[in-house]
């Protein structure tokens, strides 16, 4: 079966996490992704957080599936010519170097356009144009400057970063959408264009509801679904809301049976208004269904702490999975707090290809997250990440270099 992006060639000049997330997705959709790495060293993550000596780390292997690897010294004059040949042959260049690095290498937008006017140049940067445009940025910096950290955590504690890599992988996802959109536009205009996804912008986009709340707060001075209401105080900026749901349906994380020794024996419980009577019946507080102090969402708002404490008395008598089973029987929305170990062992995620076992010639078998986006006409087969420079000769031959020329470039240190 064909793939959605069959025939699209990507010059993957990315490293670390944000860029590689993007190009891995494009590879899963069928693009030929040629990862250009620094001769001799490669993507720095190959050796970061290693769990097996001398084997590419899980950090690298889990972000670079389905790609080919070529090593080129793009600061060497002959290496530059090889990169130029690749630019002429590819549809998209994706890069996430520090600001200005590509220009310093001699590959300005103008130069790339000269070489290939159809080329789409897609970049991840920490910030968009402005006072911080020259700054280097990593995941947690993006979470802090994009509004996530100031709005995550508990009111009486410091800002908190989340484990979800919304700065890196989140921005990679944004960039991938920009690239396929630019490819689509190119089918009509015949022209390439620049695509920029700034990590601050990507995080802020994912924190959209908090900018909503900032404006609500400025207008009314209070937000009733926040745990600060009615007993705490609101300042001038959106506060940290703990585990409150952030939407119109109050929710909180509650202890389940075994919480004393299992750090993940918890469930997220949503007191969705339409199922309030069922909630009252399940937890044995039938009288709350008709009591004017509890029967309506507005009446419940100032009593949420007490209500969740009562629900928790019930959840603590069940394991998180028992609670999930009972609550779902009554259509009550909830979510057990799954540990990575539980997710790793989840049979249904294996069946859908969301968790995949991959074999690697150096490190052996390992688990990875497969393509989270499923296309019915473009199935994903996850194949292992390339060894450093594994496809240099193959790609050079495709560019028209003879074995003797390849050997000479290797001797010159250009590849
Ligand atoms: N051959 C020769 N030189 C190469 C090369 C190659 N194949 N590939 C990269 N280089 C050079 C670059 O030209 C650059 O040289 P310069 O500094 O002389 O211009 C150098 O390697 C380092 O690249 P850089 O991107 O600056 O790496 P860094 O380790 O200094 O910074 C980041 C890393 C992630 C902070 C930075 O790349 C960045 O801010 N990227 C944008 C935001 C981003 O994606 N952050 C998230 C990462 S998950």
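Sequence proposed for the structure above (415 residues):
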């Amino acid at each position: 079966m064909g793939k959605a992006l069959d025939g699209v060639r990507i010059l993957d000049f990315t490293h670390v996490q944000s860029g590689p997330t993007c190009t891995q997705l494009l590879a899963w959709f069928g693009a030929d992704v040629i990862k250009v790495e620094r001769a001799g060293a490669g993507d720095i993550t190959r050796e970061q957080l290693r769990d097996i000596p001398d084997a590419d780390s899980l950090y690298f292997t889990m972000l670079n599936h389905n790609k080919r690897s070529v090593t080129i010294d793009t600061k060497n004059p002959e290496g530059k010519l090889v990169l130029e040949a690749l630019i002429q042959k590819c549809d998209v260049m994706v890069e996430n170097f520090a600001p200005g690095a590509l220009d310093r290498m001699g590959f300005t937008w103008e130069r790339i356009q000269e070489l290939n006017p159809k080329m789409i140049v897609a970049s991840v940067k920490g910030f968009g144009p402005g006072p911080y445009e020259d700054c280097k940025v990593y995941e947690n910096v993006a979470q802090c400057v994009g509004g996530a950290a100031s709005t995550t955590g508990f009111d009486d504690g410091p800002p908190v970063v989340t484990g979800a890599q919304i700065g890196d992988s989140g921005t990679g996802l944004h960039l991938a959408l920009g690239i396929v959109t630019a490819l689509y536009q190119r089918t009509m205009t015949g022209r390439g264009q620049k695509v920029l996804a700034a990590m601050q912008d990507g995080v802020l986009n994912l924190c959209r509801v908090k900018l909503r709340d900032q404006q609500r707060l400025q207008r009314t001075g209070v937000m009733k679904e926040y745990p600060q209401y009615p007993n705490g105080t609101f300042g001038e900026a959106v506060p940290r809301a703990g585990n409150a749901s952030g939407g119109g349906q109050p929710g909180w994380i509650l202890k389940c049976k075994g919480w004393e020794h299992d750090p993940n024996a918890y469930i997220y419980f949503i007191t969705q208004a339409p199922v309030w009577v069922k909630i009252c019946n399940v937890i044995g507080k039938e009288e709350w269904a008709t009591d004017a102090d509890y029967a309506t969402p507005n009446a419940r708002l100032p009593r949420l702490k007490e209500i969740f404490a009562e629900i928790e008395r019930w959840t603590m008598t069940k394991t998180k999975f028992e609670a999930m089973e009972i609550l779902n029987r009554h259509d009550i929305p909830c979510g057990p707090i799954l540990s990575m170990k539980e997710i790793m062992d989840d049979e249904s995620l294996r069946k859908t290809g969301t968790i995949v076992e991959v074999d690697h010639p150096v490190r052996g078998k390992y688990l990875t997250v497969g393509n989270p986006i499923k296309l019915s006409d473009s199935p994903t087969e996850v194949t292992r990440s390339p060894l450093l420079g594994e496809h240099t000769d193959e790609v050079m031959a495709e560019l028209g270099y003879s074995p003797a020329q390849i050997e000479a470039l290797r001797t010159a240190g250009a590849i």
